[in-house]
Design a protein that fits this description.
By secondary structure, the chain is mainly alpha-helical. The protein has 12 helices and 3 strands, in the order ααααααααααααβββ. A hairpin with a 5-residue loop joins strand 1 and strand 2. Bound molecules: zinc ion.
């Protein structure tokens, strides 16, 4: 029996398969072929999430920060996955050339347009304790100060907010305890069938839908 799924019509299916091939080539270090398939995928769907994702990774590999940031920014318009999965490598690359400001300024713009991105950055700050960018920890405080549960425990108010985001010890302790309490909950859930995976899979192993994985909000 064939399942007909309106979300997976033939055009989007082709894009997914082309991206899968591009990803496989990238994994076997064949960047040239990977780019060829990304371009084919983009010809089908110019805003393919996975194509932006792969393009960012390739530019990071090539140490082209400007292009990597450009693809990351495009990706952020259609998906929140890049914040969790690509920001660490973007920061790492920008650190090498002392250009962290470039990444920070793009994140600032993204937050201005989409304040809900604070949630993804808050997750990142807890998952990745090595990231020491202030913009990430500010997002964490920004996000949890709006959650009733945390607000009651931590007693945030307008006046204490600035003091809090500048209190290194407080933030470091907060990140460590949240990390400890939540580290078994870093999972992705399929929007279509609810299946949970530890690592992001572009195609759900149970319902076979593509790009349906979403990070679980483990601090809500
Ligand atoms: Zn599924």
């Amino acid at each position: 029996m064939i399942d007909i799924d309106p979300l997976n019509d033939s055009n989007t299916m082709i894009t997914h398969y082309l991206c899968q091939i591009a990803d496989d080539h990238l994994k076997s270090d064949n960047q040239e072929l990977s780019i060829e398939y990304i371009n084919k995928a983009k010809a089908q769907n110019n805003h393919s999430i996975r194509a932006y994702f792969l393009q960012t990774r390739i530019e990071v590999d090539n140490k082209n920060l400007t292009n990597a940031i450009k693809h990351y920014e495009n990706l952020s318009k259609v998906s929140k996955l890049g914040h969790l999965l690509l920001l660490p490598i973007l920061f790492k690359l920008s650190k090498e050339s002392n250009e962290e400001d470039k990444v920070i300024s793009v994140i600032e713009n993204i937050i201005k347009e989409k304040p809900e991105v604070n949630e993804s950055l808050a997750h990142l700050s807890i998952m990745n304790l090595e990231l020491d960018q202030k913009i990430i920890t500010t997002s964490l405080i920004e996000y949890i100060s709006k959650q009733i549960y945390y607000n009651e425990i931590l007693k945030f108010n307008e006046a204490s907010f600035t003091t809090t985001i500048n209190n290194q010890d407080f933030i470091s302790n907060l990140r460590q305890s949240l990390h400890k309490a939540t580290k078994n909950n870093y999972k992705y859930t399929c929007n279509n069938c609810g299946y949970k995976t530890i690592a992001l899979s572009w195609q759900c192993p149970t319902c076979r839908s593509w790009e349906s994985g979403n990070p679980i909000n483990f601090i809500s």
